[in-house]
Amino acid sequence: MDSFLSKLSILFVLLVATPLALAQTRVGFYSTSCPRAESIVQATVKKHVNSDSTVAPGLLRMVFHDCFKTARPNLLLRGYEVIEDAKTQLEAACPGVVSCADILALAARDATVEVGALTYRVPTGRRDGRVSLASDTANLPSFTDSVAVQKKKFADVGLSAQDLVTLVGGHTIGTVACQFVSYRLYNFTNSGGADPTIDPSFLPTLQSLCPKNGDGNKRIALDYGSGNNFDRSFFKNVRDGRGILESDQSLWQDSTTRNFAQRFMGIRGLAGLTLNVEFGKSMIKMTNIGVNTGTAGEIRKVCSRVN
Ligand SMILES: *[C@@H]1O[C@H](CO)[C@@H](O)[C@H](O)[C@H]1NC(C)=O
């Protein structure tokens, strides 16, 4: 009988525990626990994006850092004040209910929609990590990474080469400081000249945007000529040797990533891809990587630190 009871209790534990272990994010997670959650985030994002054009790319960048396990919503990243603003309002409306991880996933969506992307439904129900700073920051893609390295870093977190091209396509908005560009312009790999993958007719323009020995903190658009709109012109710039980051330009050197870029550009004879549609899908994949759900983690009271 004792043994029967213990088997029964094991069975009970399995039955109860399994749904928790399988808990996943889903659309509308807060529909009863905090019905205004998504509209509060959306209104907050709209307010900030309209007063500061660096907010939308900042939130996208933050999702990247989060996914590649660097610091969680981080005070140093542009756009962090949006997360904190939304969190303050949500704590007033529904204390202890909405996670910072969900606020970030929703805010990144709402910000890209504000600058021209199509909307998509964000599954929610994430919980926040109990550590604030991850020790391993080595896997965040870098602006000097080859395509092989970029593919590897994405594959390591479960993202495909198509996700890579799609998410790098997010550089259709955003800026970079000249200190990460100038090395390509004057004495690239000690050659005495510029990176040969830069369009020679574009080089003087880029050199005037980032002058030799100029201000390394000056920021320039990643999508030349269209930095404030979410569109596919980024891929045309890359095709034309006008990619600003070495890692972005390198997508054109690799046949797999070039093919995806061409499909986004709508090249005749290739199965077309729509950046607006694929971007949402890849963002959902990225924001679901390594999430805490169910009873894992916690709901932070303040997004910059654990409770
Ligand atoms: C490029 O860098 C190398 C190594 O530092 C240096 O020897 C060379 O003089 C530089 N060339 C120019 C044009 O600045």
TrEMBL record:
Belongs to the peroxidase family. Ascorbate peroxidase subfamily. Substrate binds at P141. Disulfide bonds join C34-C94, C100-C303, C178-C210. GO terms for molecular function: heme binding; lactoperoxidase activity; metal ion binding. This is Peroxidase. Its EC number is 1.11.1.7. It comes from the Eukaryota. It is found in: Secreted. The record marks R61 as: Transition state stabilizer. Removal of H(2)O(2), oxidation of toxic reductants, biosynthesis and degradation of lignin, suberization, auxin catabolism, response to environmental stresses such as wounding, pathogen attack and oxidative stress. Binds 2 calcium ions per subunit. Binds 1 heme b (iron(II)-protoporphyrin IX) group per subunit. Residues 24-307 form the Plant heme peroxidase family profile domain. It comes from Daucus carota subsp. sativus (Carrot). Pfam families: peroxidase (PF00141). CDD domains: secretory_peroxidase (cd00693). The keyword Amino-acid biosynthesis does not apply. Heme b binds at H171. One of its GO terms (biological process) is hydrogen peroxide catabolic process. Ca(2+) 1 binds at D66.
